[in-house]
UniProtKB/TrEMBL annotation:
Protein name: Protocadherin gamma-C3
Classification via InterPro entries: Cadherin-like_dom, Cadherin-like_sf, Cadherin_CS, Cadherin_N, Protocadherin/Cadherin-CA
Keyword list, A-Z: Calcium, Cell adhesion, Cell membrane, Glycoprotein, Membrane, Repeat, Signal, Transmembrane, Transmembrane helix
GO cellular component, one term: plasma membrane
Limits of the Cadherin domain: 6-105, 106-214, 215-324, 325-429, 430-539, 546-658
GO BP: any one term: homophilic cell adhesion via plasma membrane adhesion molecules
PANTHER family in UniProt: CADHERIN-87A, PROTOCADHERIN GAMMA-C5
Origin superkingdom: Eukaryota
Length: 689
């Protein structure tokens, strides 16, 4: 927003200029909280803000003439900056002129000369009085004391300045009155009226009676700024009807009150030819026009002079590049900032005028930002779309200012805007399902598997911690079997695992970041327990106490192949560790019995003699693990006469038929097919998850 106030120049410090809180539409008590501060564009501090009352106060007494000189308007520009949210308000204060200066002539006494043969109507230009006040408070008119020979004439110059001249109304006679004493009074238009006076002394001279005449007396020249030094501005056209020295004219500058002596530093005048040339670079931005007064004086006795007035108006060219001013930049900005969030306040100015001073700002179209015009020459850079720090952690924003001149001039300024991270990304495991293997009976603390997750956020939002969730699938909590390092995701055993009790574990692992609010993800690690040969075979039949023997009676005439008994054993392990083999321990004497290696059947190997006594056999059952474990049983076989041979126990047992063999083959193929289909289905489900 832009506020406009006015204040007379003679007010004392502490004078209330305007009610900022009311005009801005904010509460007074919020001004301090929003850190309201005042920035003067000119660098000088003339005002202050009363935060308690919310008003703009005068900090020092203003002098309009010192601040703005002869400018028709006098304005001071301020900037009010408020935070939370960041806002910029422009304040323009007009300094009003008061009639605090009286007119004053450059010299208190003016001496003029006029020939006695001067014709009525001859004009004698006078010095213009100066009044620093403006408008109605500036010089309004001039008055001349009463005289029989002279009257006052007032001409208006092109810039509105009133130029007094003394006009001869009645022929002079030097012999009667050689000197005339007059008083010239300058009056301003203030209330009350103020005035200044100068004494005018007119000496009446004899002889040379034709002054130089400028044609035209007032002229105007248009000249481009920055023309080369030495460029011809104009050549004065002055004529003098006299002859000889009385018609020989010399030229000289005559200073004026508008810019006393200033133009003499910029222009040169040839005293003989009347050519006016530039002698220093001209700058439109410093002054757009110059009023030059020239005196044309002949060499008569007495000398007569004429006066020419030249107005040089400069044509602006586009010789100044725009200037970019970053008033405020909010960096970093949160990546979840809503569209329209103010990022920076940017000011631009160009010292040229017209189209040459019209500036437009541009930024790259692919950036998620746009420029919004706040008021004249002030812009706000706001977000135009969503920001994502994971895609772009910052932006190099180049602001380009281009004016409308021909040729165009441009300036650019680049600043870096950092995007602050918010916790908008959950951690992500490299795989939602993992498989691990661990040997049973491993020591507690054995490393099983390491899961890994990543988080595209940064800082605490990307600091990950791992934990194990309880899925309730085991009898005891999963945390009694496994633990996880919360920093690196390594899973360790808590206790020794028993394959025979649990063959596989589903370990749900959760990873959580340290953001606020925290985000998390889960993965499942299938831990397969590998069997170890830690169980010896257990003889189920015959079941005898440890250290005892099993007694078995057989017919004394049992034939070879006779089934004496069968050893039945089991092994709690699995796979190769559970493959059992049966054998007789070596003895000192040859025994007429043998043990089937796989089935554990004990049969008669050779015919028994009638006189044979009991036989003591030690049958050893051994598994296929590494190292191999075994168990043994002692069997005492006693031949008896009255035992009846059971021919069903002979070696001629019925052999499996071909149909039984085919049925077994079909069963194996079916199991393999079902296993393959199940694996494919589990793979598809895992991929979908």
């Amino acid at each position: 927003a832009q506020l406009h106030y006015s204040v007379p120049e003679d007010r004392e410090p502490g004078f209330s200029v305007g009610d900022l809180a009311k005009d801005l539409g904010v509460e007074v008590r919020s001004l301090a909280a929003r850190n309201l501060r005042l920035v003067s564009e000119g660098g000088q501090r003339h005002f202050q803000v009363d935060l308690a009352a919310g008003v703009l106060l005068l900090d020092s007494r203003l002098d309009r003439e010192a601040l703005c000189g002869q400018s028709p308007t006098c304005s001071l520009h301020l900037q009010l900056v408020m935070e939370n949210p960041l806002q910029l308000h422009r304040v323009e204060v007009d300094v009003l002129d008061v009639n605090d200066n009286a007119p004053q002539f450059p010299k208190p006494e003016v001496v003029l000369e006029i020939t006695e043969v001067a014709n009525p109507g001859t004009r004698l230009p006078l010095e213009v009085a100066e009044d620093p006040d403006m408008g109605s408070n500036s010089i309004s008119t001039y008055e001349l004391s009463p005289s029989k020979h002279f009257a006052l004439s007032i001409n208006v110059r092109g810039d509105g300045v009133k130029m007094p001249e003394i006009v001869l109304e009645k022929a002079l006679d030097r012999e009667k009155v050689p000197v005339h004493h007059l008083t010239l009074t300058a009056l301003d238009g203030g209330n009350p009226v103020k005035s200044g006076t100068a004494r005018v002394t007119i000496h009446v001279l004899d002889a040379n009676d034709n002054p130089p005449v400028c044609d035209p007396p007032i002229s105007k020249v248009l000249l481009e700024e920055n023309v080369p030094v030495g460029t011809l501005v104009t050549k004065l056209n002055v004529t003098d009807l006299d002859e000889g020295p009385n018609g020989d004219v010399e030229y000289s500058f005559k200073t004026s009150n508008n810019a006393p002596g200033k133009f003499t530093k910029l222009f040169s005048l040839d005293a003989r030819t009347g050519e006016i040339r530039t002698k220093a670079p001209l700058d439109y931005e410093e002054s757009s026009a110059y009023e030059i007064a020239i005196r044309a004086r002949d060499k008569g006795s007495p000398a007569m002079e004429g006066h020419c007035h030249l107005r040089v108006e400069l044509i602006d060219i586009n010789d100044n590049s725009p200037e970019i001013v970053l008033t405020s930049v909010s960096s970093p900005v949160q990546e979840d900032a809503a569209p329209g969030t103010v990022i920076a306040l940017i000011g631009v100015k160009d010292s040229d005028s017209g189209d040459n001073g019209q500036v437009r700002l541009q930024i790259a179209k692919e950036l998620p930002f746009k420029l919004v015009s706040s008021f004249k020459e002030h812009f706000s850079l706001v977000t135009s779309g969503p920001l994502d720090r994971e895609k772009a952690s910052g932006y190099n924003i180049t602001v380009r200012a281009v004016d409308s001149g021909s040729p165009q001039r441009a300036t650019q300024k680049t600043f870096y805007l950092r995007i602050a991270d918010v916790n908008d990304n959950a951690p992500n495991f490299s795989s939602p399902f993992d498989t691990a293997h661990v040997q049973e009976n491993s020591l507690p603390g054995t490393s099983v598997f390491s899961v890994s997750a990543s988080d595209p956020d940064e800082g605490s939002n990307a600091k990950l911690s791992y934990s194990i969730l309880d899925n309730g699938m085991q009898d005891a909590p999963i945390s009694t079997y496994f633990r996880i390092d919360q920093d690196n995701g390594t899973i360790y055993t808590v206790r020794a695992l028993d394959y025979e009790q649990d063959k596989v574990f589903q370990v749900p692992v959760e990873v959580k970041d340290a953001g606020s609010p925290a985000l998390s993800s889960t993965a499942v690690v299938h831990v397969f327990v590998l069997d170890e040969n830690d169980n010896a075979p257990n003889i189920v039949y015959p079941s005898v106490p440890k250290g005892s023997a099993f007694h078995q009676a057989i017919p004394a005439l049992a034939e070879p192949g006779y089934l004496v008994t069968k050893i039945v054993a089991v092994d709690a392990d699995s796979g190769h560790n559970a493959w059992l083999s049966y054998q007789l321990q070596e003895s000192a004497e040859a025994l007429p019995f043998q043990v089937e290696r796989r089935s554990g059947e004990i049969r008669v190997a050779q015919a028994l003699r009638e006189s044979e006594d009991s036989h003591r056999l030690v049958v050893e059952v051994r598994d296929n693990g590494t190292p191999s474990l075994s168990a043994s049983v002692v069997i005492v076989i006693s031949p008896e006469e009255n035992s009846v041979q059971d021919f069903s126990k002979s070696l001629d047992l019925p052999q499996p038929s071909s149909e039984d063999t085919n049925l077994t083959l079909y069963l194996i193929i079916s199991l393999v097919s079902i296993s393959l289909v199940s694996c494919v289905m589990f793979g598809l489900v895992a991929a979908r998850c």
